Structure formats: structure tokens, C-alpha cells
Amino acid sequence: MRNWACGISPSAAAFAALGLLVCAGYGVAQTPEALSSPSALKKLSLEQLMDVEVTSVSKRAEKLSETASAIQVITDEDIRRSGASSLPEALRLASNLEVAQVDSRQWAISARGFNSTTANKLLVLIDGRAVYTPLYAGVFWDVQDTMLEDIDRIEVISGPGATLWGANAVNGVINITTKNAKETQGLLLLGGGGTELRDFGGLRYGGALASNVFYRVYGKYFDRDSAVLPSGQDATNNWRMGQGGFRLDREDSDVNLLIGRRRRERRQCARPMDPQNVAGFGFQTAILL
Q: Are 104 and 270 in contact (CB under 8 A)?
């Protein structure tokens, strides 16, 4: 005669123990560190993905699913996987924007039509600061540059936002948020080259001045080839630019202490070109030490 405790068979007890182990392993796997990996994000449900926090809609942190606006979020992982080499190329990931490359350096970015190099119906922010030019209230996209590896996310809001953001937010808001200096510690080297983007390189280093004060400095350079006219002639609009910058953050404050940039560029006179002749190929390598 078998002696079963509490009416549970040995096989049922074994299955129960296996279930507890599985549940325990699942509980450990759902730590914030594990959820930050791409493989873990792929396993999340649509509801869990909608819990991503955004700040551009109401100027406060809130869940993406609870925002009273049409918004798209481009993460740093999206930018890395896209192979983008500049901010305008990264904005092509937002389906609610119209992004067109005019020549080797000029871009036309807008929403809701009427796109041109002088489009001025979008408010563009980098770390909360407007970057439009007082000349015509538009954005010179060829000079709005930073290391893409430093970008945390890009939030793109569709529709009018002047009630909250004021002037320029007629057809939408683009809010580019960079990473805290504490998240970019150590040395980063990157470089590459190709046909249109002939060569580029970047160097970034992050360190700490105190237990709660962190910084990063960077320098980057690129050289873009001229575009080709429909006739096959060189458009003579090649250009190159070098840029450096830094960021300083204090851990016990939500506001970064200081952000600075300095750039130097050289370009040739641009001619009209065929947009179909912009595409090229290249490669990129990054080393994190």
C-alpha cells in the first residue's frame, strides 16, 4: 500500500517542484537589468512595451500608453541597428516625419506636407533646448550634430503642441534626449568610411570628478563626398566637419550642469542634384573599452 502525504502523488509533487523552479527562474529573469537587453525586450507583450516612459507630451514622465498625443519613440538601440550616421538619418525611423536629403549636406525635414529646406513648423529640442535659428525659425540640420552613441531616445510628437511648448510647435515636436554622463563612462572609439561618407571617426571619454559628479568629452570628424548631378557631373558640394563637446552632470540633480559644443567645418558651393544619386555604402566600427 502506498503512503501519499496529503493526498498528493510523488509524480504530482515532482511536477509541482518543477513548476516552482520555473516560476523562480522567471522571477529572477524579470529584473530591470535583464529587461534592458534586446532579447528580453522581444519577449515583452504589447502592453509591457507601452509602459515606456516619455516626457515630451506633458513635460513630465508618463507612460507611453497614457499620453494624450500621437507620439513615436526612437530608442538608442533603434539608432544603432539602423546604421544611421547623422541625426537626420536617424529621424527617418519616425513614420510621422517627412525626411528628404537635398544634397550632400542639406536636409528637408517636416510633417504634414510642405516640406523644404526652410520648413519651420516643427519645434526641435536637444536636451530641452530649442535649436531653431532666429533667421527664419527653421533648423540648420547640417550643424545640429552629436555623437549618436550618446543619444538616449528621440521622441516625435505629431500634431500641434503650441499650447504646451509655445512657438514653432505647429505640426509637431522633436525632442532629442542624450544620455546622462554617468551612463557613458570609459573610452569609446569609432570609425569607418565608404563612398558618400568617405571617412569618419569619433572619440569619447567619460569619467568622474567626484562621487556624484560625472563628465564626458568627445570629438568627431567626417568627410562627405560630393553628390552627382543628373548629367553625371560632380555637384562640387563635398564638405567636412569636426566637432567637439562635453557634458557635466551631478547625480543628486535632475538638471545637467553644463553642456557645450564647438565645431569647425569646410564646404564647397552646392549645386542642385538628383536625390536618387545620394545613396552610397560604407562601414562602421566601434570599440568600447
A: yes
Which stretches of 202-278 are DSSP H helices? Answer: none
Q: Strands 282-288, 258-267: parallel, antiparallel or unpaired by DSSP?
A: unpaired
The Cα 140–Cα 120 span in angstroms is 10
The CATH T-level fold of domain 46-178 is Ferric Hydroxamate Uptake Protein; Chain A, domain 1 (2.170.130)
The helix (H) or strand (E) run that includes residue 16 is helix 10-29
pTM for the full model? 0.69
Q: Where are the domains of the chain?
A: 46-178, 181-288
pLDDT for position 104:
86
pLDDT for 5: 40
| Segments in the chain below pLDDT 50 | 1-8, 12-13, 15-36, 269-289
Strand partners, 228: 234
